[in-house]
Amino acid sequence: MNNTPRDIDTKLAEIYEPYSGAIAAIERSNRQLDMDYVKRNPTRRVELEKTITDAKAVIAILDKKAEPLEAIYRAKPWTRFFLVPGGHLHRSRKCSTLRWNTVLYWLPEYSGKTEADIVALAGEKACTVCYPSAPVDRPSQLPIHKKERAEKAAEEQAKAEARAAKLVKAINADGSEWKMREHGMWENFKTIRAVELTIMREMDNQVYYGAKAEGTAAIQAMAAKLQERTGKPAQEIIDGFQAKVNKKHGIKTG
Q1: What CA–CA distance (Å, rounded) separates 180 from 236?
Q2: Which residues fall within 8 angstroms of residue 89, CB to CB, at 6 or more apart?
Q3: Whether 129 contacts 97, CB under 8 Å
Q4: How far apart are CA 33 and CA 1, in angstroms?
Q5: 191: β partners
Q6: What 3-state DSSP class applies to 83?
Q7: Distance between CA 103 and CA 83 in Å, rounded?
Q8: 134 CB neighbour count, 10 Å cutoff
Q9: How far is 124 from 77, CA to CA, in rounded Å?
């Protein structure tokens, strides 16, 4: 292995990968040990204490394994960079804007680069506490952020296409409901298909119960709305559905 900052930190990142899990186990167990129900439960207390002991042993092993590489870093430190998922890029884990449980991703591929270079690359995603000169209006060019933007753009495109497809089927061009009074009651329609099915239902009723003025008026109003929405003449719409209903019921015409 070469002793470049990138090579050393890449190896350290691999060594430290289980580190955060061990730290979390210790902190979680210590919090539970302070709970009253644990204090009254010796068995659970022993389990938690063992968890802490085991986690500390893991940390000791990792520290020992990492020490030769960390010694190289201490002898001649270089820049290191840490990223909060969905958040900012930091120069260290000790930034005042971070909480004890903030998840950080180490970016060893950038270790050793000048701060000016990495800040220029990170743009608006560079922490302004760590880097006071960081630009706040320049999109990050870090691959992870470019990927996030591409994914977000694809998601927005998919949503826009879904909205457009939904509007094509809507009874009103803006997607709003259309209200119509039918048989003394208000009916709400969202889609063209809902209006078409209601016309068919009204025509079925006319076959079963005979044509009534109110039903015929409802059919004409719905056909007029479909004409408004689709451009197809209302009478042609009525004739088309009537033909389907007649065929369904075995009614011969002409």
Answers
A1: 21
A2: 81, 82, 83, 107, 118, 122, 125, 126, 127, 130, 140, 142
A3: yes
A4: 43
A5: 170
A6: strand
A7: 8
A8: 21
A9: 26
With b meaning 16 or more CB within 10 Å and e meaning fewer, what string describes 73-99? beeeeeebbbbbeeebbbbeeebeebe
> Could you give the CA distance from residue 234 to residue 226 in angstroms, rounded to a whole number?
7
pLDDT tens by residue, the chain, 254 residues:
568 999 999 999 999 888 888 988 999 999 999 998 888 898 999 999 999 999 999 999 999 999 999 999 999 999 999 999 888 999 988 899 998 778 888 999 999 999 899 889 999 999 999 999 889 889 999 998 899 899 999 999 999 999 999 999 999 999 999 999 888 888 999 999 999 999 999 999 999 998 888 999 999 999 999 999 999 999 999 999 999 999 999 888 76
| 118's tokens | 């990495």
Q: Could you tell me the two tokens for 160?
A: 């826009």
Q: Comparing C-alpha atoms, which of 83, 153, 70 is closest to residue 118?
A: 83
The SS3 call for residue 43 is helix
Question: What span, in angstroms and rounded, lies between the C-alpha atoms of 112 and 6?
Answer: 7
Annotate 102-148 with DSSP letters as a single string.
Answer: ---EE-GGGTT--HHHHHHHHGGGB-TTT-TT--SSS---SHHHHHH
Q: Which amino acid is at 65?
A: K
